[in-house]
Amino acid sequence: MHKYPSSLLSLAAIAAALALSACGGSSPSASEEGQASDDGQSSEPAGEPVPAEEPSESDIVSILESQYAQINAGGGMPVTATASGKSMVLKPKIWEAHKDEPCRPLPQSDPGEYECSLNLMMTMREGDNEPGKHAERVHVSWDEVEGEWVGAEVLRERRKKRK
């Protein structure tokens, strides 16, 4: 009767040991590191260096407008209020935008990656002509190949295509 549970324990211990050994991986040898640095080639082609200044207000607003344009092009964002069960489609439109504080560099990220805050006057429904206050955080990254500020998700997609 005790034989069955102990065999399961043994099997679980072996599986855990294999999983841990697989996660360890191996670090590149000195010769591999030397080859990578000697070639001078990286996964990304060399391009425009990261600017010393953070993204401008117009760059950030442009990135947010393109994100909202994608939502609107897809027919908007359907939402349902849980309490009432009422459904609607959100179609954001920016009427006014201001960057009131400096962007913050993202910790533990590549140089040229920022989180920027915008204070907006915007509407969320089509046909609504009375904008309300809204604050939005936008993740902005420098695309060194194209030499422009883009949204972080755009840069991820571009890097996937370049590989």
Written description of the protein model:
With 163 residues, the chain is an alpha+beta fold. It has a domain of 106 residues. The protein is built from four helices and seven strands; from the N terminus they run αααβββββββα. The strands form two sheets. Strands 3, 4, 5, 6 and 7 form a five-stranded antiparallel β-sheet that branches. Strands 1-2 form a two-stranded antiparallel ribbon. A hairpin with a 4-residue loop joins strand 6 and strand 7. The termini are far apart. The N terminus is likely disordered.
Quick summary:
The protein has helices spanning 3-24, 30-39, 57-73, 152-162, and strands at 77-80, 87-90, 93-98, 104-105, 113-123, 132-143, 148-151.
Question: What would the keywords be for this entry?
Answer:
alpha+beta, five-stranded antiparallel sheet, disordered N terminus, 163 residues, 37% helix, 4 helices
Q: What is the global morphology?
A: globular
Mean pLDDT over all positions: 80
- Class from secondary-structure proportions: alpha+beta
Unreliable stretches covering 5 or more consecutive residues = 1-43
Order of helices and strands: HHHEEEEEEEH
Number of strands: 7
Q: What percent strand?
A: 25-35%
Write the layout of secondary structure elements.
Layout: H1 3-24, H2 30-39, H3 57-73, E1 77-80, E2 87-90, E3 93-98, E4 104-105, E5 113-123, E6 132-143, E7 148-151, H4 152-162
